[in-house]
Amino acid sequence: MPLEQYVLGVDSGGSGVRFGLAGATSGTPVTSPVVSTSPVRTGPGGIDAGHLLEQLLPAAAELTGRVGGGAPVAVCVGAAGMATLGVGLRARLPRALADALGVRRLALATDAVTAYAGALGPRAGAVVAAGTGLIALGTDLRAWRRADGWGHLLGDCGGGAWIGRAGLEAALRAHDGRPGGSPALLERLEAVFGPAAGLPGLLYPRSDRPAVLASFAPEVAACAPADPVADGILREAARHIAQTALAACPPPDGTEALVALTGGLLKLGEPLLGPLRAEVSRQVPHARLVPAAGDPLAGALSIAAALASDTLAFPDDAHMLHVSGCQAR
Amino acid sequence: MPLEQYVLGVDSGGSGVRFGLAGATSGTPVTSPVVSTSPVRTGPGGIDAGHLLEQLLPAAAELTGRVGGGAPVAVCVGAAGMATLGVGLRARLPRALADALGVRRLALATDAVTAYAGALGPRAGAVVAAGTGLIALGTDLRAWRRADGWGHLLGDCGGGAWIGRAGLEAALRAHDGRPGGSPALLERLEAVFGPAAGLPGLLYPRSDRPAVLASFAPEVAACAPADPVADGILREAARHIAQTALAACPPPDGTEALVALTGGLLKLGEPLLGPLRAEVSRQVPHARLVPAAGDPLAGALSIAAALASDTLAFPDDAHMLHVSGCQAR
Hints:
- The first copy, chain A, is α/β, with parallel strands linked by helices.
- Chain A is 43% helix and 20% strand.
- Chain A is built from 12 helices and 13 strands.
- In chain A, helix 4 crosses helix 12, helix 5 crosses helix 9 and helix 5 packs antiparallel against helix 10.
- Chains A, B: It comes from Streptomyces candidus.
């Protein structure tokens, strides 16, 4: 009986990196992930391949050491910013992993692709990743379609910063006596940030303004059951999220598409999810809203396992999902 | 016959400072303004009184020299940020102007107050100052009422950055295939900023993001006559502007209030001003929309003249309009 073979999955994001090991045939994790709280640096050449390798190689050694296995036969790296900042990774990682680990199959994916693979697996549909921002990625398994993800000033409609910003605007409308104001949200604004007059001075000097705005989204959700203005904000957010899912989802072709929502926005609970279910069934009637099956690390592991068995069903794309055979020097 | 007496007006803003001289009785300018393109510095102690005086004293000497007059008998300084950053000016300017010029009457006003005085004079109503941002100031001549002016993330609803941001969002909706998109605005976005995919990289690293957003507002106005999405954005802006004017305007009391719009947003022309006239007459029926009679420097001169003749009709307010008798050492 041959030794079991393993694949490595990597989920690199703004708050750190997670590394997982799965069976090469099953794609099922065989041990708990190695977690680094040191986000991979981004420099003038994009995501820093050297900094990623410094973390990846020891993590791979630890994971395979735990299960007494050999080097992984395939690797999938999912990283935030891969589409626009992945040039260095695409240039250096194939050779480096072949040299260090003998890896011959490598997939470099943007985090939205690993989120998709984790949430829905190799099936047609759309995944909406919603935290501070909001982006949807869809596929008919022939090409990828992206919608929104333009950031807090240009879009990310219905995401955490969008909801929090709308809630703060409604609070300040109440403060000024303008229509559309919510005294309940004004009370929450003052409880969280202090007197309304001081809020601009707290917010605008910050470099993490979208996160500050998004921090108010749970207050909007908490007010929604008793406050029609807050409830209206979440209903409009749900309308935007469904619009974005619709734009990314493959058009009706007689088969059922799946739509999943992933990310921290789920924590807002029923005040958002109730309207969202209604909007998705109204706007995207050919799709079914399903819970995400797994997270982006699970998605990276499933892509790596599909690479190992030559069964990858997702479309190759220079920016979204780049597959390379690796050759050692 | 006594010699003619003069008053000095100062309009200090983000792009520089203007100094004017008027007859103390009439408040009418007697010579053209002295213009400095060096904005008064703001430091840890707020607006830098020393830096203002360095410019004010030579300007006052030049202006009075031109007309062969003595030192001004009253001064009004209108400055952006006076309400929140005027501590140093309020502490130092009365004594400094008494010592240097023998000035005994001084008013320190926020730029919204001088804009009000210039636009409407000492009458009840509201003035909406709309450029990149948007703020309304109103008075019944007993107290000031402020509305909006919360900046591009919290409000400034209907202002230049608001309109430009909404136009860019509509353009990107068209790019993604989301509802509410405008192909005409997408065409303008690409003509101005290049490919849509590059816009986040152009916008987010800038420190003058509101100005970048506002730079797209004229494109929205240019598209509005032929594009229903752009037209809808301007109609919604007009609705917001009228709401803000209503919140600042004194409530109906049987007399007619005046509402004026000032600032660069006027340049958008009929696509905005048509809907705005309709919204003001619908939402603020007790007010009449009038053109601004004069600019903030004219307002500062009229306040200084009213100080000189002891006829100031505007309400004194520690932050908005602070009047002090000046005593020399």
